[in-house]
Each structure stands twice: as C-alpha cells, then as structure tokens.
Specification:
The structure is a single chain. This protein is of the alpha+beta class. The protein has three domains: 156 residues, no CATH class; 64 residues; 152 residues, Heat Shock Protein 90 (2-Layer Sandwich). It has eleven helices and seven strands. The strands form two sheets. Strands 2-4-5-7-6 form a five-stranded mixed beta sheet, covered by helices on one side. Strand 6 and strand 7 form a beta hairpin. Helix 3 runs antiparallel to helix 4 and helix 3 packs parallel to helix 5. It binds adenosine-5'-diphosphate. The site of adenosine-5'-diphosphate (ADP) has 22 residues, from helix 9 and helix 11.
Amino acid sequence: MSQSRTPFTLPFFTAAALRRRVTWLIRIRWLAIVVFGIGIALGCYFPAIHVQCKALVLILIGLVLVNAIYILLRDYVIRQHKDYLINLIVIQMVGDLLILTVLIHFTGGIESPLYFFYLFHIITAAVIFPGTRPYGFAGLAVILYTTLLGTEWLGVLPHFNFYEGVDITRYTEIVVFTWLIFLMTIFLSTYLAKNVTDRYRRVRTRLEFTNRRLQELNRAKTNFLRVSSHELKAPISTIQSTLAVIHDILHDQVDDRVLDMAARSMKKTEEMIALLNDLSDLTYGDLRRAGEFVETDLRELVQEVLQDEKITASAHHITLDAEMPKSPVKLVCDPDAIRKVLRNLVTNGVRYTPESGSVLIRLMDASDEILLEVRDTGIGIAASDLKKIFHEFYRTPQAKSVSSAGSGLGLAIVERLVDEHGGYVTVESIVDQGSTFQVHFPKEIVP
Ligand code: ADP
C-alpha cells in the first residue's frame, strides 16, 4: 500500500503572502515614522535630552521618501516581476537596519535608548523568514552596531551625547560590556523568536495538510453517497412498479393476505425511495459555482408549498396559512433547494402538530436579510434536543411516539441547503406548546 507523506513546504513564500508581507512592512514603517516624528518633537523640546534635531528631521524626511519609493517599487514588482517580491522584503529590512544605525548614531550612539529597536527588526525577520535567514539579519545588526560603537570609540565618527555631560565612549570597559550584552540580547531574541514562529509554522502546515485531507475524504464520501443513492434508486423503483403491476393483475385472483403483503412491500419501497431522495439531497453542494442560482421571488415558492401541503394539513384538521409582504421578496438562490427547505419545515410542522393545531409560514424582508419562518402549535422539542435534531437520523422520543414516518434527515438537509446559500437556521420551542424554525438568508451571498 502506498502512502503519501505530508509535503511540509512552507506556505509563506506564495506571491500573495509575500505581497501581504511587503505591504505590512510599509504600513508598520508609516506607523514608526509617526512615532519617530513625535519622538523628535519631544526630544528637541526637553533640554535635558541631547539630540541632533536637524539630523533627525532629515532622517525623518528621508524615511518618508524611502517608504514612498517602496510603495512605487512594490506596485512595479507586483506588476512586472513577482519573483522579486522577496528581494524587496530583504532590501526593506536591510535598509531599515541601516537607517536605524544612523538614527542611533545621532541619538547618542552607545547611550541611545533606540538600540532596542534592533529587536523589532529581528522579530520581524523571524516572522517573515523561515530557516536561518533571521540569524543573517541578527548578524547584520551586530556588524552595524559594532561598527558604530567602534568608530565612535576610535573617534573616526563624532560622538553625540544623549545625556548632558556624560560621554560613555571614553570608558572602554562600559563600551565592551554594553556591546556584549547587546550581542547576547540579539542572538537570544533571534533564537526565541525563531523557536516560536517555527513551531507556529509547523503546526499551521500540519493543520492545513490535515484540513485538505479531510476535505478530500469528505468529498469522496459525499460522492460515494451521491452515486450509490442514485444507483440504488433505479432497481428499487423497478421493484416498486413491478409490485404495483402484480397487485393490479392479481388483485381478484389471490388471497387477500398476498395482496396485503404486496401492498406493504410497495409501501416499504416507497419509504426507501424517499430515504434515497433524502440521501441525495444531503449531498447537495457547489451549486453556486455551477451557476444554478437565479433571482427568485420567494413568495411564489411559499405559495406553491402552501398549496401542496394544505391537502395533508386539512386531512389532519390542521390550519396551514402564510403571511407574506405585498411586494416581491427576491433572493438569488436555487429555487429547488429553497422549495425543499420550506417543504421539509412545513411537513415537520404538520407532522408534529396534533389535530386542530395550526402551522404558519411567515416571509419577512428585512434590510440585510430575508427571514423565512415556520411556526407551529405542536408537540415541541425539549431544550436538550434542540441541537441534536439537526444531526443526521436523529429523532426525538416524542416525535417517534407520534409518528413513525420520517428518516431524521430532513433538518440535516435543511441546514445544508441553507448553508449553501450563506444562511443559517435557528429554532425555538416549548414542549407541548409548539416550535418556531427561522431561516435567515443574507441578501448578499459572500463568495
Ligand atoms: P424527520 O424526518 O424525523 O422529521 P427531521 O430531520 O426533519 O426528521 O427532524 C428531526 C427531528 O426533529 C424530528 O424527528 C423531530 O423529533 C424534531 N422536529 C423537527 N421538526 C419538529 C417540529 N416542528 N416539532 C417538533 N419536533 C420537530
């Protein structure tokens, strides 16, 4: 037996994911620019903080320009060279590390509190890149920071004090100690961030794989159900019509018991065909994609079902009525499916309502949804059963005691058909007083 293995490819480098990442970085940078702007204003306002206001304002302007260029580059790359999206991310991140280093230089070098911002970049790298690349960015941060400290310490670059009168660069041991702490913090943070994000990626990939497998299995099961119910229907229909012919031909020649047996067999085959029809309804799906949805006035469907079911209802001395708006209630839907939904709910209402009770269908057109309600004065449903009645083949003990008819599939079918239309079903019920089923259809189906 061959077994396919999980293809643990990481889903992070798809074009869509990369596009999202690029845009995400640009947005974060806008946010950083705003915060940076506020920081400059405060830093330049308080005399105790020594910052190079002019240089910082220039960096801020540069950052705004760079981010605007990134937007143009992003749009260009998306249009022309999707394969370079990853390079655009790398360019942005390297650029950010460089700008941050310049910023640290003008805010006091070793004294600058901004060196913590290297950590944001490291965490961002771990979120975006799998593998060892985040360590590459950590290495680059270390090289840049080390170069900055080294050149300031050697006097190649001037040192700007952050705190008045304190120049830490003159104390070599403090420089080395700070540098060591920085080194440790950067690599430890990279390790931790990578650890968490790698685990998340593994779990996510596995979940996606399992989900895909489950969908395949479900499709295979549904297909099996659809084909087998269809294949079984033909021979059973033949048996049923053969029994009917035998019954008609022999009805005055054979014993009543034989006729009775034939009649009972016919009834059983009828039930079986109804069950097979239910099973094939249960496999309904993908109609929307098959383009079978049409704009329908639901009032017409309600009227149709009302007429059909009135005969059974009046045979059981049950009043069946409908309340509908005067103007059309239009829904883009599969009319056959909605007819089935309504028929199932009304049949249940009639079936589980004692004589002289009533069943009322109400159609309501709200601003964002269409509401179809079937309310009866029947046996009701115990609170503990309200969820279970939507499970396939479940029938409440009360229902079984009042009617042997019913497969327990009707509400499962209703739920499925309504779900295919983007809607949902709710039910409220009080035992011995009645039940109200409400079907909510959104006016706009979200694809
Ligand atoms: P069935 O073919 O048994 O009616 P359904 O799936 O349509 O199957 O309904 C499942 C169960 O939900 C029924 O067997 C019954 O117990 C309960 N039920 C559904 N509609 C009503 C109702 N209007 N009043 C009381 N019980 C209901």
